[in-house]
Amino acid sequence: MPGSSAARGRFYITTPIYYPNDRLHIGHTYTTVAADALARYHRLRGDDTWFLTGTDEHGQKIERAARKAGKEPLEYIDPIVEATKELWRRLHISYDDFIRTTEPRHERRVQQIFQRLYEQGDIYKGVYEGLYCTACEAYYTEAELLDGGRCPVHEAPVERLQEESYFFRLSKYAQPLLEHIERHPEFVQPPSRRNEVVAFIRQGLQDLSVSRTSFRWGIPVPFDPDHVIYVWIDALANYITALGWPDGELYRRFWPADVHLIGKDILRFHAIIWPALLMALGEPLPRCVYGHGWLLIDGGKIGKSRAGGQVIDPVQLIDKYGVDPVRYFLLREVPFGDDGSYSEEALVRRFNADLANDLGNLAWRTTGMIQRFLDGRIPEPPGAASDGVLAAAARATAERVERAMAGFDLPAALQAIWDLIGRANKYIDEQAPWALRRAGDRERLEAVLYDVAETARVVGVLLSPFLVETPQRLWSQLGLGPEYRPASWQQGLAWGQLPGGARVVRDQPLFPRIPGDEPARE
Ligand code: ME8
């Protein structure tokens, strides 16, 4: 990448592949927007980056949803997958590949994985009897169930199933997994999730049933087509089938993944079953499985089909507030890793306090003063006339953001950027350009306004991984023109690039305040 001298890294990030049994909601949007911000950040830094998302289309849950709608599975799924892609388009999700598990490129390789594990003895045939939750596509032990034999995730009754089944020798991998987690403490994050995974493995792992005969909608076991492959084996494999495992060019380039970003609901699948499968295949393990918390509404997890529960349609939120306010709210509101509440009121509060007041005002005041005091032209870079305060603050902020991003802590990165915005607003108050003007101190006036405007430009660069329209709008107000794009993160952050003489454009505030601090009326 031109302008970047830093050594290039490599970055492969994935989201879960979502079930297209119903339209996606704000919870799926949360994970995907977070992954997008991380992918954009690494791309901007010049890292060779791959961002994978997709849909998980097999299994009984999908088969039942389709049947209920009187449709064939694919006929039922296709429009939901299209709506999913449309949602990602509206949010400017910059994925490099979208995998559907019904694609031949995936099905063929899942069969190849199953075959190989069978031939080497890691998969064997037996009989399974257990308590099964269809919504989770998972068996539970008695101890894991809620009172009354109900699923701990969906709180609905589980079913007793008995079937001939193939099993994966998960038990064999308990010890190697524990050793791996010990040697690589960053493998499961955040640390609270690591403790949960370690405690679970220490109880001992049972072999896992990995085929089903009770329904047909799945990938057939290649050597025994009465069985379909368990949907979680099918689904987890997407992270390598999409790269062309075992010998595709992308596979060699990007595996192992740097991070599988997921919700904590599917942590055990990703931090236990998936690495055990990879160990059995002799493939390297992902560097990190990051299990973030849940967005809650009124204290409950948002469900696609929670009876009576509210399901928030992200498209409506984008229509009402714009794409960047929605992205910003999701990335900023909840400490990453923790659970947090979603509400439209909170979104409006963030909009008014952070976007309209802090960021919007910085741009509005800066361009306003340049207009009034300097005939609308950016002054020349001040050199020694600058006190260097904002340049130093900007440099320190970039370092804070980089540290936060290395730990996947997106809210902390945004907090750092907002501290810089706050510092610049305070600097305007302290330096009082209007007083410098009255005193006729032209040199200081120009130096102060240059530094504030340059800080706003840098804020645009820092925000580029997170927001998709605002940086350009901010830069155009500073007279940079619609074509301006920093060549890279490093190049964009170099201080003093705002060209003197450019004419500021003061058309409208970036984020007009929403009246009343309450949800706007339709
Ligand atoms: O589990 N808060 O798909 P899924 C935060 N197909 N994140 C949420 C959320 C909420 N309230 N609700 C959903 C599956 N998510 C499998 C995955 S991967 C090989 C197979 C996000 O459609 C979060 O990332 O049920 C969660 O893990 C995922 O959506 C579950 O999506």
Task: Give your account of this protein's structure.
The protein is α/β, with parallel strands linked by helices. The two termini are 45 Å apart. It contains 19 helices and 15 strands. The strands form four sheets. The chain has a six-stranded parallel sheet, with helices on both faces. A four-stranded antiparallel sheet has the order 5-4-6-8. It has a three-stranded mixed sheet with strand order 14-13-15, with helices on one face. α1 links the parallel β1 and β2. The N terminus is likely disordered. The protein is elongated and about 90 Å long. Its EC number is 6.1.1.10. Belongs to the class-I aminoacyl-tRNA synthetase family. MetG type 2A subfamily. Its main location: cytoplasm.
Largest sheet: 6 strands, parallel
First-to-last CA distance: 45 Å
Mean pLDDT: 94
Strand order of the largest sheet: 3-2-1-11-12-7
Structural class: alpha/beta
Q: Which regions contain 5 or more consecutive residues with pLDDT less than 50?
A: 1-6, 304-309
Q: What proportion of the residues is helical, as a percent range? A: 40-55%
**Beta-strand proportion:** 5-15%
Computed over alpha carbons, the radius of gyration is 26 Å
The helix tally amounts to: 19
Please give the number of β-strands: 15
* Associated small molecules: ligand ME8
- What is the 3D shape? elongated
Family: Belongs to the class-I aminoacyl-tRNA synthetase family. MetG type 2A subfamily.
Main location: cytoplasm
EC number: 6.1.1.10
Subunit structure: Homodimer.
